[in-house]
Here is the input.
Amino acid sequence: MQTKYIFVTGGVMSGLGKGVVTSSLAKLLQLSNQKVSCVKIDPYLNYDAGTMNPIAHGEVFVTEDGGECDMDIGNYERFLNQDIPKSHNITTAQIYSRVLEAERHGEYLGACVQIIPHVTDAIKDRIRKIAEKEQLDILVVECGGTVGDIESLPFLEALRQIRLEDGPENIIFVHVTLAPSLDVVGEQKTKPTQHSVQELRRIGIQPDLLAVRCSQPLEMAAKKKISLFSNVSVKDVFSCHDVDSILTVPQMLNDQGVVDVIFKKFGKVGLLNTSANWDKWNAIVGSFSNSKKSIKIAMVGKYVTLADSYVSVNHALKHAGAKIGKNVSIDWIDSDDLNGNINKLSLYQGIIVPGGFGERGSEGIIKTANYAREKNIPYLGICFGFQLAAIAFARYACSLPNANSTELVPNTENPVIDLLPEQKSVTNMGGSLRLGSHEIMVDDNTLAFKLYKSNTIKKRHRHRYEFNKKYLDQFKENGMNFSGYSDDKKRMEILEIPTHRFYVGVQFHPEFNSRPGFPEPSFEAFVTAAAKA
Ligand code: GLN
Here is the structure.
């Protein structure tokens, strides 16, 4: 079976929404009954996204199989409602590691190892293995960065070679560019697109389709000009104008006939019965715009200066809101700004504390967790938010005033949160946290059971520290229960306060399992409780 490939490249500048175009193309092909998946190429030299600061690079998205990936993988999962394995995030470091390892094993004996063909072969091999293993009809591959970057050259070269080897009937290159307007009613400028297509053609890639980002729908005059200068026919130039919700992009591209164009190029025929698929998807998309009345949520964390730092948490809140017909408005609050100003939180119907690392801002979060408990404000703590809620409870409800986490104060007298025992010998910082999906047991007659309606759930993790069981009885006596645990009760995974309106902390990351139309249960319950507050 020959998998067809769509290669998405980016021009002009970063941040144009290549990830959304990629996800949207994959979505509308999935709705057209194709078996699809997406791959993200990140040409940077980090082995994976795990060691990158979320303020600079956005959230680290964790996959079921424990990959610490680029946040675009999260977009693919949410659009396709499908798990994406970590092998779908390819970086320069992974490719070079593979090549260097092969060289040491003598796989290239006698040869001078070079970017072409050895590195490009390793790239092609990695992409083709995914298509083969998953038996895909179509694989959409997004190449990160902007054409002209030095780092992405070997990847673009590999994609060019795949077209040569597999034949043009099996490959579509989509180039995402920008047509800026200098003022609201102004003319749409095509020169940046012309130049970026020229750049691509210089390295031997002629795009088949152009997805042009613009604020207003792309005008025919601009389309014609772009077509002429880019050697792409007018019907293959697509407008990707601004919309309120990214979920409407598949429909927007579909309305412009993109499926017909792709199917014709791939020699596919007979599009049957896709309207039921679209109806289901559009009902989900519609639930977001139908939502009325806002629920005000405070998200208190460390990396609040970049909205992308907690992108999955933001989406999970919106999914939950849409499900109950409410719009969720989120204020990101830097925990450092709450010192002496904690009463500000009384303005919110719910407080959420997402994941985080390190000492800065932690005292503000501990105060936040305590404030939510004392004022009976719905609280959802995720990972770091679970751990700091436990510390707050130890300090203010269990008379352990100096309770802390050994992550924050290594020699604390009351290490309520402590290093996972198996982490004690770990010195390597990359890929060494407790990662990915682990099974969790849930006790009957608990709030957690009410949410998950099951005694076993599987959730994704990313942590090095955990609740110290030494304090378990003391917590119980004072009113905090642990209703979920893993690894033969070794690790506490869910905390709750039964007398509180809604006070839940989870050691795992529920946000990575939330999808449009299918909110993760802890988010849905949190938002529902907040709506009543
Ligand atoms: N820093 C904490 C740990 O490593 C929490 C991690 C997180 O929030 N993802 O355990």
